[in-house]
């Protein structure tokens, strides 16, 4: 059984850095609703984010984030909403447990990263929020380190 807090790339510095950025740092920043923890992880120029709307059909996907500023506003909205909720379990453990990032394809200075969510979190009232989607991140080495240049996210998991 995998340890959800353990970086699965201990001997691969590129993949290790990408995992830390997209799993550990992203989750901690989201839980703190603190964009400043991740703002340096993005390439602002040319950033693009596609919202797959949990739809298999790409005709239904939308250019929801034509800029990093647009994505930042939605990220902050979601993080603040989440922070205002009460849970019956530790949210950090629940999110790490539902998150899998083990497939990173690197070609030169560019990477395609597959991050999947499969699980949920129990709220204080006993209801369960299902966390079940996946995101394809486009990363590249920029200013000496790996950064996110865009994504196609909120895709069904599994697809079709």
TrEMBL record:
Recorded hits in InterPro entries, A to Z, give: NTF2-like_dom_sf
What is the recorded name of this protein? SnoaL-like domain-containing protein
The protein's organism comes out as Rhizobium esperanzae
């Amino acid at each position: 059984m995998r340890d959800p807090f353990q970086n699965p790339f201990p001997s691969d510095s590129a993949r290790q850095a990408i995992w830390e950025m997209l799993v550990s740092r992203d989750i901690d920043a989201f839980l703190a609703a603190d964009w400043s923890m991740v703002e340096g992880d993005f390439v602002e120029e040319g950033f693009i984010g596609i919202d797959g709307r949990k739809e298999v059909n790409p005709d239904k996907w939308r250019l929801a984030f034509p800029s990093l500023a647009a994505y930042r506003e939605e990220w902050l909205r979601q993080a603040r909403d989440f922070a205002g909720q009460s849970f019956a379990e530790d949210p950090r453990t629940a999110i790490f447990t539902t998150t899998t990032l083990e497939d990173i394809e690197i070609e030169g200075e560019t990477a395609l990263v597959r991050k999947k969510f499969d699980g949920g979190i129990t709220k204080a009232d006993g209801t369960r929020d299902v966390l079940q989607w996946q995101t394809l991140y486009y990363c590249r080495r920029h200013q000496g380190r790996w950064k996110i240049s865009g994504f196609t996210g909120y895709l069904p998991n599994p697809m079709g």
